Amino acid sequence: MPFLFCELPAELRITILRLLLIHTTPIIAYSCNDLRAPQPFKLDIHPNISLASRALHTEANAILYGENTFQAHPTYLISRSFAMNPLQSVFSSHCISYIKKWHVRVRLDVDPYYSPTEVAQTFSNMHELEVEVFRASWGLGTYDALEGFTKVRGVGKAKVHGSLAKKYARWLEKAMMSLPGTEVEEWHHTALLLA
Q1: Model confidence over 138-188: pLDDT tens digits?
Q2: What whole-number distance in Å separates Cα of residue 185 and Cα of residue 118?
Q3: Rounded to the nearest 5°, which phi and psi values hold at 72?
Q4: Are 107 and 79 in contact (CB under 8 A)?
């Protein structure tokens, strides 16, 4: 009698799919002083399982895109997202709609290519959002590139780190994790701005 994967109990099937589709190694933490793009590496996942049937495709995509962390492109945000290799971007809006965990690198000493509204619409209501802030030299740039992130709401777990004041990072995390529609007390730009 042939083995039929789809006839396994749902809990067991999901456990097996998670073993095949979730990238177990965390995304590389980059040095804030390193301006180079992350070096691609081989992902230890097996997405071809999703090609076995339509039902399996639906289950597998929800896990592959919903439970892995994806890197948002530093210029184009999610319109060119990738797991680690920028040459293998995810372009399908259908697949992008499944992604709930994001990592984005924001450079403070250059003007952003996206509007604050785009940032708020893109990252609000995500399960996880990690914002890694960097600049070419300490003291260069302002927090203007982070303006859109101050409008993000409803994030389950937010982490902000890098070349910025710890108090501002904690304030921004709290703002992003507040409920949608919540007004958050404005950050007062003081001498702490570049501290």
Answers
A1: 667 788 889 999 999 999 999 999 988 899 999 999 999 999 988 888 887
A2: 21
A3: -80, 140
A4: no
Angle separating helix axes 54-67 and 10-21, nearest 10 degrees = 60
Residue 193: per-residue pLDDT? 47
**pLDDT computed for residue 11 by the predictor:** 94
Write out 42-96 in H/E/C secondary structure: CCCCCHHHHHCCHHHHHHHHHHHHHHCCEEEECCCEEEEEECCCCCCCECCHHHH
CA-closest candidate to residue 194, choices 146, 147, 150, 143:
143
Strand duo 101-107 + 128-134: pairing: parallel
Half-sphere exposure of 39 (CA within 13 A, CB side): 4
pLDDT tens profile 27-64: 443 334 444 555 555 667 888 888 888 889 999 989 98
Amino acid at 141: G
How many other CB atoms are found less than 10 A from the CB of residue 123? 24
Query: Left (φ > 0), alpha (ψ -120 to 50) or beta: where does 185 sit?
Result: beta
Q: Torsion angle, CA of 123/36/159/47, rounded to 10 degrees?
A: 60
